[in-house]
Design goal:
Oligomer: single chain
Number of helices: 16
Number of domains: 1
Number of strands: 6
Structural class: mainly alpha
Helix content: 55-70%
Shape: globular
Strand content: under 5%
Distance between the termini: 5 Å
Order of helices and strands: EHHHHHHHEEHEEHHHHHHHHE
């Protein structure tokens, strides 16, 4: 974990600005807009507004909504950075330092994930969950993608990515254990669910022990162990985008065309495959990886066109505040509630605002977090894991 300051200003000026803005957009949606829009939906409470909220809600099981893209996009962008950050280590003889760097990042992201969603800060051994958060999915995906990047050519990486997708699909289709699997993609009967229950047991999110037996809640259906194969593919697809964006021999026009063609192809192939291998984000199915990564390629193309190609940077600076301290933004949102400060200052408004007062408190929390991020950005202090 490193705090970068002014001595790194030159390096920061060479960053791919569209990546910082896109990451900022993703983080704003996650840490800024999500809670506020859901509080507003509760306050408005009309059928038309609830229908609109589909865009800001996860699909219950099969299918894909715009909001389902937030986590894959976060992971995809961690992959884009790999060719930029690790290229100088690729051909050196002694790679001990880069292995330490990768291991440190994986461990820190894992611990941060347990702090955010694994109840590590609760200090209750009976309620700690080991593998349950986006940051841990990034850690696993980054571990797979970074090691492949260091030791193989891009052709091999593409073959491995395809192999992982097919391996996940094959396991889900043809492995049957204790009534789970064998092509069963229901919440209660899929193979990934069985593996998580067997491997994580009491340490799976939401699990509890009653009368000496581990009880798994019906409301929690995310899987992590088998899904880690495809976490690696999601980050790898970002790495492939990073190859394109970093290549100085490619013109900006060629980069745009490449990103768009790859994105459209992946979306199309993913939805077609989804006819037989359903698009299910909670399982991180192979068809979902193709669909989501395809959309990520298209979003990256759009932001690259607007920010780096057209130079429309005037109104994007506020998103960079989120994007250049994404881990800080995420950790503050998940671990700290600043709305108590808003309530201390604004509680007099509560009798007059009714249901909308909760929206005000949420916006106060978002505003305080943004203020912290702005102060860090202004002082060129960026947390890098």
């Amino acid at each position: 974990m490193t705090l970068l300051s002014r001595d790194m200003e030159k390096q920061l000026s060479q960053r791919l600005e569209s990546l910082d803005v896109l990451r900022g957009f993703d983080l704003f949606m996650l840490v800024g807009l999500e809670t506020a829009i859901h509080q507003l939906s509760s306050a408005v409470d009309t059928p038309s507004f609830h229908s609109f909220m589909w865009c800001f809600s996860h699909v219950d099981w099969e299918g894909f909504s715009p909001w389902d893209l937030v986590m894959p996009l976060f992971m995809f962008m961690s992959g884009i950075t790999i060719p930029f950050a690790l290229s100088r280590y690729k051909h050196i003889n002694n790679q001990t330092s880069v292995y330490r760097r990768i291991l440190k990042r994986v461990i820190l992201l894992w611990i941060f994930g347990m702090m955010c969603q694994g109840n590590l800060l609760g200090l209750d051994p009976n309620r700690i969950y080991f593998y349950s958060n986006t940051l841990q999915a990034i850690a696993m995906g980054y571990l797979i993608a970074s090691l492949l990047y260091l030791h193989t050519r891009i052709r091999t990486q593409i073959i491995v990515a395809a192999g992982l997708l097919l391996g996940f699909w094959g396991a889900m289709e043809w492995i049957t254990v204790q009534g789970y699997g064998g092509g069963n993609y229901t919440p209660d009967g899929n193979l990934a669910e069985w593996i998580d229950r067997e491997v994580l047991g009491r340490f799976r999110d939401g699990a509890s022990v009653m009368n000496g037996e581990v009880v798994f809640p019906d409301w929690y259906r995310y899987t992590w162990i088998l899904s880690s194969l495809n976490f690696g593919v999601t980050v790898l697809t970002g790495t492939f985008a990073g190859y394109i964006l970093k290549d100085k021999e490619w013109t900006p026009q060629r980069k745009l065309v490449g990103l768009v063609i790859i994105g459209l192809s992946m979306v199309g192939i993913g939805w077609i495959w989804g006819i037989w291998h359903p698009v299910i984000k909670k399982l991180w199915t192979s068809s979902m990886v193709l669909v989501s990564s395809g959309y990520c390629f298209l979003l990256m193309a759009l932001f690259y066109y607007l920010i780096d190609y057209k130079g429309w940077k005037k109104y994007s600076g506020w998103l960079k505040v989120y994007g250049m301290n994404s881990i800080v933004a995420y950790m503050l949102t998940m671990c700290v509630n600043f709305s108590c400060i808003g309530h201390s200052l604004l509680h007099g408004l509560q009798p007059y605002m009714g249901e909308y007062y909760s929206v005000v408190l949420t916006l106060s929390n978002v505003g305080i977090i943004y203020f912290i991020l702005w102060e860090l950005y202004k002082r060129k202090l960026f947390l890098r894991v």
